[in-house]
Design goal:
This protein is α+β, with helices and mostly antiparallel strands and 285 residues long. The protein contains 6 helices and 10 strands. The strands form 3 sheets. The chain has a 6-stranded mixed sheet. Strands 7-8 form a two-stranded antiparallel ribbon. Strands 9-10 form a two-stranded antiparallel ribbon. It starts with 12 loop residues before the first strand and ends with a helix.
Length: 285
């Protein structure tokens, strides 16, 4: 399976941690923070891949399609073949376990072309699509594109939702004036709540809800919009921002040294806090 480099932002990944079989290729990708799967299967003459899938229990959602060379001739998908194969029942059951249904091509025809005299062409390359999907409801066969293979490619369009990327967010920097004001406002409003007459669970719920509303309101009052980028640093603080602004105004060597010192102190404070946080969580030293 080949993935065009232009789709790298969708983070395609071969998921051997879910299916570990040389003839089963499970690919995951992300679109708008949702993980989707594409399953490609080659079933040999003994149908070992299908037996593996039948015996392997996994709990995954959002499988968009399953396709491949299943090496099964059956009257279910090949009108020129008069028989039904029992292994087809296993294939249908496997597809159903992923909430997939058999897809009839828009241009029915053989998918494998035989060079052997007396042997007819066959339909053994199949596709199963997400059940009930309006976007994924059929595929096509490209009989004129077999290249060096004796199999015709199958083609389908998978719609990709436009990614919504937040480039800014509301935030309150640690140890900033906004953080100080936020805490003062929360404490001040908390102190105004009347908690002297809580007699039942409903009244307690009302007080808790009021606390939540206060925190939310004071957050929006004091938070500042900050722009996120690949260069954003968690340790960046108000002192760093102020020191950088001062340096940009005067461009003096002393101000540059002050800025570098502010960055050094911010990093030390940030990572010391992280070390203490991890140590407390793990109950370590």
């Amino acid at each position: 399976m080949y993935i065009n480099i232009h789709f790298s932002s969708l983070r395609f990944l071969l998921r051997k941690n879910i299916f570990d079989h040389h003839d089963v290729c499970l690919i995951s990708f992300f679109n708008n923070c949702v993980c989707y799967y594409i399953l490609n299967v080659y079933s040999d003459s003994s149908h070992s891949a299908l037996k593996y899938l039948k015996d392997t229990k996994v709990n995954i959602n959002n499988v968009l399609l399953m396709t491949g060379d299943f090496n099964i001739r059956d009257s279910l998908w090949d009108p020129s073949f008069p028989f039904h194969a029992s292994i087809s029942d296993d294939l249908i059951m496997i597809a159903d376990s992923f909430d997939l249904a058999f897809s009839s091509p828009t241009n029915p025809g053989p998918t494998r072309f035989s060079d052997t005299a007396g042997e007819s062409n066959s339909i053994i390359d199949l596709m199963f699509l997400r059940h009930g999907s309006d976007e994924l409801d059929n595929h096509s066969i490209l009989p004129e594109w077999p290249l060096s293979s004796d199999h015709a490619p199958l083609i389908i369009d998978i719609p990709i939702l436009e990614e919504i990327i937040q480039t800014s967010k509301l935030a309150i920097s640690p140890n900033s004036e906004q953080e100080t004001e936020f805490i003062k406002d929360v404490i001040s409003n908390f102190s105004k709540l009347d908690t002297s007459d809580i007699e039942d669970i409903n009244e307690l719920d009302q007080i808790v809800n009021q606390l939540s509303v206060i925190v939310e309101q004071m957050w929006f009052k004091n938070a500042k919009k900050s722009r996120s980028s690949k260069h954003s640093k968690q340790w960046w603080s108000e002192s760093c921002r102020n020191a950088l602004s001062t340096y940009r105004l005067e461009r003096s060597h002393e101000n540059w040294k002050s800025f570098k010192l502010a960055v050094k102190n911010a990093k030390r404070t940030f990572f010391n806090d992280k070390i203490h946080e991890i140590a407390n969580k793990s109950r370590g030293p």
